[in-house]
Amino acid sequence: MAYTAQDFKKGQPRWCPGCGDHFFLASLHKAMAEIGVAPWNTAVISGIGCSSRLPHYMATYGMNTIHGRAAAIATGCKVTNPDLTVWQVSGDGDGLAIGGNHFIHTNRRNINLNIILLNNRIYGLTKGQYSPTSPRGFVSKSSPYGTVEDPFRPAELCFGARGHFFARAVATDAPGTIEVLKAAYHHKGTAVCEILQNCVIFNNGTHDAVSSKEGRAKNAIYVEHGKPLIFGENNEFGLMQEGFGLKIVKIGENGITEKDILVHDAHCEDNTLQLKLALMGNGDGFPVALGVIRDVDAPTYDDSVTAQIEEVKAAKKYHNFAELLETNDIWEVK
Amino acid sequence: MAETLEVKELAEVAVRFSGDSGDGMQLAGNIFSTVSATVGNSISTFPDYPADIRAPQGSLTGVSGFQVHIGANMVYTPGDKCDVLVAMNAAALKTQYKYAKPGAAIIIDTDSFGAADLKKAAFATEDYLGEMGIDPDRVIACPITQMVKDCLADSGMDVKAMLKCRNMFALGLVCWLFDRDLDIAFNFLKEKFAKKPDVAEANIKVIQAGYDYGHNTHSSVANVYRIETKKKVPGRYMDITGNKATAYGFIAAAEKAGLKLYLGSYPITPATDVLHELSKHKSLGVTTVQCEDEIAGCASAVGASFAGALGVTSTSGPGICLKSEAINLAVIMELPLVVLDVQRGGPATGLPTKSEQTDLLQALFGRNGESPMPVIAAVSPVDCFDAAYAASKMALEHMTPVILMTDAYVANGSASFKLPNLNDYPAINPPYVPEEMKESWTPYLRNPETGVRYWAVPGREGFHHILGGLEKDNKTGAISTDPENHDLMTRLRQEKIDKIQVPDLEVLGDKDDADLLIVGFGGTFGHLRSAMDELRAAGKKVAMAQFKFINPLPKNTAEVLKKYKKVVVAEQNMGQLAGWLRMKVDNFTPYQFNQVKGQPFLVSELVAAFNDIINK
User: Fold this and answer.
1) Is B304 within 8 Å of A329 when comparing Cβ atoms?
2) How far are the Cα atoms of A38, A87, A186 from residue A34, in angstroms, in the given order?
3) B54 pLDDT exceeds 80?
4) Tens-digit pLDDT profile for residues B222-281
5) Secondary structure (H, E, C), chain A
6) Beta carbons within 8 Å of B140's beta carbon, 6+ residues apart
7) Is B239 helix (H, G, I), strand (E, B) or coil?
């Protein structure tokens, strides 16, 4: 059966006008329609925060739970009911601060969840405190003299936790977002999608460099598995390896042709170069990588749980409570 | 010498096996209790182990004990003090002698009472018996280590492996002392070590040697005791600990309800055995996830319930602290969830291996907001099965989290468990939303009679909905901050719990004319019952009532509590049940007996305290 975005829509979102979450929600509705899983076989589970309101605007099953615990709740949901397609929606505070422990362990276990990390580098719902992704020195209500701590870089955390899928999109870029969401669905295992999202009230402009089409042309690179890492307004730049790092080269200069450019390998088990791509941008002269940066197959936790249950069922002779009792040392009193 | 042997008939006897944590005292005790149960004796056991896994060998902190109480009639507790103390080393004698009755028989391994052993156990002289005031006539002093080595000399085992069998020598001696049938012990070992027949054989050889040693010398204690079985309830039995019975109760309830059982848990003493037990039973489809923390244990169980399973999380008091928020999520989302709290000594890390009842008010009130939740407390190791079944049934049928309380004593203690037949247990019918309600259904539509909302499990077309931690409109299920609606929803959640039917409080003993009613809850049942029996045997008019269902309280609670001249609430905390009852029953002013020692009550202390109250 074919679905339209309308089949996944519900209610009137109450985010601030211009909030990046509106853009993302529209893309999610469209992506779900294209993916084609029935709304009643879909569960959207969030924590707490502005972005965690999202399940209320979904015509699917779902829960808007408690702060930080969405990944753990989604884990129980998916492991018990593997037939459901489960999406977890969290902000940078919900997912990486209070929920950081669940985030890393979900990645480590490789539960077949699609994790949406809406990153606006600020706490919006509590009205403007710095988040674990705010840059060092960030001035906010709770850091009037600037923060004195370094931020998490979500990809680094995901890779450090042995994550097998990481993709990035800008909320205002609908085609890019839909592409990433579909890839996340098709990846078996934990799929982390970092969505760069603007908070118009408390952190306006945080992703300005890449929020417009023109900005992305200048400051972003769309990575695609098997394609050379080329970017620039006229596709004039490329990435090459240099020593332990990457360098930007201009195609046609110093004898460099397109063939010399590094070809993206999202399926490479070793995440070294994928991490280098993921960490680019933010004032280092490199473009921000968008698209599927890492997508590596690995056994999923939920599949392994099911398989182990089947294995043990085949190996053991007891399959119900009455038979279980008989496995004990029993004596009879006459 | 056999002709001088005196055979004494006893109604009951308690044996305490003690030694280093690694000495296998629990195995020896388990075999002894199984052998006794097999001939129809009533049994009750309790392990007393240190928090350290392997404290230095022979040290005072490393001693672990395992007490077995067997009786011709019903025994309800592991016994205050033991009739026979097995002390495998000097430290065990030093720390465990206080648990021996005056005149108890003491079995020691003299090979573990050398100068170095005595020093480690802080004895000042070599006259360790004299130092402790033990009459040498009561001591069976046997060079157990040497005799085990001699016995296994031809086995080809190394000395370390041989010494692991020392516990079996002591067991053999105890079996002789109580005239036990060794074949039952042999069968037990053959099954336990089915994959290691040489280990089974060595153990059997050593038990026999211990038995023969007793028989041939019948030592300095010239009595063999018999505990005949008076009241037999025919049937098939197994030995079960409270934790295992709890796990079995969950499995039984899930099967009866036709649901998957999901356990989200994080290891914590003394609840971990429930995780271990359930993890074994994948062939029954049980899913267990050892989570990254206590919070995830509970949160994932909530997720599992949402997805249509029986979600369970198991922990102890410190874990409940961490789970509170996720439990509250299940309260407001009105999803089934069973939270097992195997209580231990608190606050904070407290006394991890010791037993208390100090989490009652936490279970009742330890969450933000108006958060009513059923609370059930198992009254004995065997009752853990029924209590876990009842908690699961209540959670599933009333769409609510339920706290099931046990404690370290009940969880680790064991008793004979008559194999249950699931056909005898009530059906479990979760309130699934009927298909014909599709058009009119909303998430918080309630059954008018029970106040329970209907359950729509994901995967059903036409019933998609969003639950959550925010207050919802009682009709539409949408987020609502309306003052009237919140007040109504608060009352509806309370009413739903208040309407749950629980069995009436049962009064035992002198129901009609007791001068004192003893009241307790949960795991103290055996001790309070034994105290009542002793008082009545001494001619006192005493009754007792043990609360298993604590929220909601049984309907006849006030009637029972108001009926007697004097009521004492005895509990292993500072008066939490007494406080709860005073909140619920007007003008109820009981006497209180409170002890927070991390150890089970002593029946003798209860009897003395209750006598004082009767005489006031």
Assistant:
1) no
2) 11, 15, 12
3) no
4) 566 666 666 678 899 998 999 999 999 999 999 999 999 999 999 999 999 999 999 999
5) CCCCHHHHECCCCCCCCCCHHHHHHHHHHHHHHHHCCCHHHEEEEECCCCHHHHHHHECCEEEECCCCCHHHHHHHHHHHCCCCEEEEEEEHHHHHCCCHHHHHHHHHHCCCCEEEEEECCCECCCCCECCCCCCCCCCECCECCCCCCCCCCHHHHHHHCCCCEEEEEECCCHHHHHHHHHHHHHCCCCEEEEEECCECCCECCCCHHHHCHHHHHHHEEEECCCCECEECCCCCEEEEEECCEEEEEECCCCCCCHHHCCECCCCCCCCHHHHHHHCCCCCCCCCEEEEEEEECCCCCHHHHHHHHHHHHHHHCCCCCHHHHHCCCCCEEEC
6) B105, B106, B107, B108, B173, B214, B219, B220, B221
7) strand
- CB pairs < 8 Å spanning A and B: 204
Tell me which chain B residues have a C-beta less than 8 angstroms from the C-beta of A107. Answer: none
Q: Distance, in angstroms, between A193 CA and closest chain B CA?
A: 22
Give the model confidence (pLDDT) of B127-142 as tens digits. Answer: 999 999 998 888 989 9
Residues 6+ apart with CB under 8 A from B501: none
How far is the alpha carbon of A317 from chain B, nearest alpha carbon, in Å?
8
Mutate to test the interface with B, among A1, A78, A312, A331 (most CBs of B within 10 A): A331
ipTM: 0.97
Neighbours of A181 (CB within 10 A): 26
- Work out the minimum CA distance from A222 to partner chain B, whole angstroms: 35
Residue B211 Cα to chain centre, angstroms: 32
Binned at pLDDT 50, 70 and 90, residue B103 comes out as: confident
Is A313 in contact with B465 (Cβ distance < 8 A)?
no
Distance from chain centroid for Cα B375 = 17
Q: How many CB atoms lie within 10 A of CB A156?
A: 14
> One fold for both B239-424 and B508-615?
yes
Superfamily the domain A5-211 falls into? Thiamin diphosphate (ThDP)-binding fold, Pyr/PP domains (3.40.50.970)
- List the single best residue of A56, A329, A330, A334 to mutate versus B (max B Cβ within 10 A): A329
Q: CB of A195 within 8 A of CB of A21?
A: no
Q: How many CB atoms lie within 10 A of CB B230?
A: 13
Residues of B whose CB is below 8 A from A113: none
Distances (CA, A) of B281 to A305, B288, B304: 13, 9, 18
Neighbour tally for A37: CB within 10 Å = 16
Give whole-number Cα distances, A83 to A86, B123, B263, in Å: 9, 66, 19
Q: Does position B530 have pLDDT exceeding 50, yes or no?
A: yes
Closest Cα in chain A, distance from residue B193 (Å): 13
In chain B, residues with a C-beta closer than 8 Å to the C-beta of A43 are: 306-307, 458
Q: Indicate the pTM of the whole model.
A: 0.93
CATH superfamily of B2-226: Pyruvate-ferredoxin oxidoreductase, PFOR, domain III (3.40.920.10)
Using CA atoms, how far residue B312 sits from A90, B345, B418, in Å, is: 25, 23, 25
Q: Residue B212 has which token pair? A: 């023969």
Give the 3-state secondary structure of residue B343: strand
Task: Supply A216's token pair.
Answer: 């992305």
Given the candidates 3.40.50.970, 3.30.365.10, 1.10.3720.10, 3.20.20.100, the CATH classification of the domain at B239-424 is 3.40.50.970
Kindly report, residue by residue over A264-323, the tens digit of the pLDDT: 999 999 999 999 999 999 889 999 999 999 999 999 999 999 999 999 999 999 999 999
Does the pLDDT of residue A67 top 90, yes or no? yes
Per residue in A241-260, pLDDT (tens digit) is 999 999 999 999 999 999 99
